[in-house]
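Predict the 3D structure for this chain.
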Amino acid sequence: MPRILNFLMLLTLLAIMGCTPVNTATPTPTMPASATPSPIPTTPTATFTASPSPTATVTSTPAPFISGPANFPDNVNPLTGLILETPGNLALAPGLLSISNAPVSARPQAGLSYASQVYEFYLGEGASRFLAVFYGLLPPLNTESGQALELGPLRSGRLHYETLRRFYNGYLVFASASDVVLPHLEQYQIIQNPNPDNINGARIPVSRLLELGRDTAAELGQPEISGLLFDPAVPVNGKKAERLWMLFHYYDQVYWKYDAERQVYTRWQDDGEGGELTQAVDSLNGRPLEYENVIVMFADYQRYTETLFNINLSYITRYPALLFRDGQMYEIYWSTRNEEYEKTTGKLRPPRFVDARGNPFPLKPGQSWIEIAQLHNSYFETEDTRDFFRLTNTRLPGSGVWAVYYIPPDYQPTPTLTPTPE
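Done. Predicted structure below.
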C-alpha cells in the first residue's frame, strides 16, 4: 500500500480514537469495567530509597500570569514560563547536552535540575539516554570554594539530535559519535574523556557552556523561541495522575511520583536490574529532580540496529501526547508543522503542544521532562506495584497510576554515511 495512504489511514484512526495510540501487539489502552481485573490487596507497592536533602535551590520564579505562545516578556523564559533573575542569558544559544543514564554508575547526573527541558529516549539494549536543553537558567560557574562546576556525564551523539538542535537554533555537546552518526550532525562540540578507564569521565565546565552559547548565537543569530503556552491555572477535564511508569524495558523502569505539597513530579528509577527504585537527584546540589510538567510524546522511532535509532520529529502535523501536571493527565497532541512563523521567518521551533482543535494547550509554568515513546505504544491505568507482570498487564481505570509500555519498532535498513541533501 502506498506510504501516503498508510499515513492518511493513521491520521483517520487517531481522529476516531482520540489521543490513544494503537498497538496491535499489546492490549488496548482502555478496557470495559467488566473486563478490568480486580486488584490483589497483597501486591507490594513501590518502595524507595531516601534521597539526600537539598543543599541549594534553583533561582527562578513562576510567573503568576499567562505567558506565550508568542511575545514573551523580556525576563520570562519561553521554555519554562519562569521569570529569570538573569534575563540576559536568553541571548545565549541553547545548549543541548547528551547526558548518560546507563550504566547506573552515571547516576546521579550533574546539572539536570537547571535544564529547562529534558528529552528522554530509548537507546537500545534496555537503556535510555537524555538530551538536556540548557537555556535561560544556567548553573553557577563555581562552587562556594571556587571549584569549577561541570555538567555530565556526557555520552555519544545520536541521529535525532540534529533535528532537535535545529528546532532550538542551538548547539550540541556530546562525547563522541559513530561514523554513521557524525556526518548527520552540525554545530556540535565534542568533549573528550580525559580518563578512558572511567566511562563517566566526559564532562563540560559551565564556563565552556557560556562560551559556546555566545559563539553560536553570534554565528546563527540570537534564539527566537516561541510556541509554548504557560498558565498557572489547572486545566479542566483532566484525569487523576499521581503516578506515571515509563517502562522502556524491564531493566529501565522510570517512575514519576506527584508531590502535591510542592506541586511537582519527582523522578525515580530502578537499579538497572528491575529492582529497588531510587530517587533521582542532581549531584551539583543534592537537589531531587523536580519537574512541573512531564510530557509523553508518541513519535515514530526508526530502528536500524539494536543501538542505532532515529526518531522522526520534523514537520509533524499532529501526533498524540500525554501531559502530566498538577496531579492530572491530559490527552493532547504535539506538532512541529510549518505555520505562519516558519513560513515568514524561515526558522524552526521546538515541539508545540495543542488540543484536538489545534489550539495551544497550557503547560504549568516550570521545567518539563519529555519522554519519547514509540508511536503505537499503549498507555493505561494500572496498579502501583513492583511486580512487573502485574504492572504491565493490569488495567485499573481510575487508579491514577499510569503506565506507558515501550515496544521498539521492527528493524529498518541502516542509513547512509552521506547526509541527505537539503
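Helices lie at 3-17, 161-168, 206-220, 340-345, 388-393.
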